[in-house]
Amino acid sequence: MKRRTLFALPVISLALLLTACGGSSSSSSSSSSQKKTMEVYTTKVTSIKVMPDDSDWKITGTTDAPDGSKIAVTRLSDDPLDMENSCEGIDGEDGTGNASWPKVKNGKFTALVDAIDLVGDPDNYTKVGYTQKAAVVAISNYSKSWSDGLTSKAAKAINKANPKMVKFTLSSSQVKYIDSLDDDDSSDKSSSSSSSSSSSSKAKNYRTDVSYDSLARDPKTYKGEYLQYTGEVMQVLEDDSYTDLRIAVNGNYDDVLYVELDNSILHGKRILEDDLVTVKGVSAGIISYKATSGTKISIPGLEATEITDSGTAPDDYGE
């Protein structure tokens, strides 16, 4: 009997040990299945382009957020209820073709940002050159659908992350598109007609009395003004939607103006280096870029609404 008792003790102990281990495993499994905490990540926007034929900006960028994190673009506010996500995935990233959250993949993202939603105030989204600052963030472990937008908790988390603000500037094509939406709305027909007439009248009065020196010295005063300059094209940068020019105003290579053209106003034609052009547009303040040497260069910028190309500039132009 004693021998049987001695053998029974280890068996009982082993059973207790297995039970304890089982309990620990169950606890670990329960812990690992707990819902993950939402987290806000900062991003770096590497490109902002205006989509042709509508008012959206197309942005691309990078982030350290994990794959699947959702991208949000919003104005910051002390009241989270005033914050609204203004972007969606390209052609419905959920595969349905409907509006959806843009998502991070391999540390990169692409999104469409609605100018009307982002700017908000109708008095501002009809101003060419108006700049709206917004936060562009990635949110991991966020279960809400795109139609749900940003919850109060998400908005507070974004504010707490204190992300670097990104500048979105309205182009002439965006304002033109937004104005056309007003024209199509019969309930606001008389109001939009008045606004369109006022805008058209203003667009015809391009100032020629603002010297390059005045524009360069006091860019804030003239930002948003309709201006006109003539000069020789020093450099042409082209892509599918835009053409950017550096122009020597009046042939003076010390007075360089940075001009951005929506390709739609070129009507299929191209601008070439050394061409003599007259540009009408809206002052965009100071434009900064890096030269091939890496040096930062800041010069006055113009968002073009019209351009006249007179062909190659005469050899004695500007002398």
Task: Give the overall pLDDT as a whole number.
Answer: 80
Strand content: 25-35%
- Contiguous uncertain segments of 5+ residues: 1-33, 185-203
Q: Order of helices and strands, N to C?
A: HEEEEEHEHEHHHHEEEEE
Number of strands: 12
Q: How many helical stretches? A: 7
Which radius of gyration do the C-alpha atoms yield?
Answer: 29 Å
| N-end to C-end Cα span | 121 Å
Helix-residue proportion: 25-40%
Give me the secondary-structure category. Answer: alpha+beta
Spatial shape? elongated
What can be said about the biggest beta sheet? 7 strands, antiparallel
List its salient traits.
319 residues; alpha+beta; 7 helices; 34% strand; elongated
Topology:
Blueprint: H1 2-32, E1 39-50, E2 56-63, E3 70-74, E4 87-88, E5 108-114, H2 115-119, E6 131-140, H3 152-161, E7 165-169, H4 172-184, H5 189-204, H6 212-217, H7 219-222, E8 226-238, E9 242-249, E10 256-262, E11 275-290, E12 296-312
Parallel strand pairs: 10-12
Antiparallel strand pairs: 1-2, 1-6, 2-5, 3-6, 4-5, 6-7, 8-9, 8-11, 9-10, 11-12
Helix pairs in contact: 4-5
What does this structure look like?
The protein starts with a helix and ends in a 7-residue tail after the last strand. The model is unreliable at 1-33 and 185-203 (pLDDT under 50). It contains 7 helices and 12 strands. Strands 1, 2, 3, 4, 5, 6 and 7 form a 7-stranded antiparallel beta sheet that branches. Strands 8-9-10-12-11 form a 5-stranded mixed beta barrel. With 319 residues, it is an alpha+beta fold.
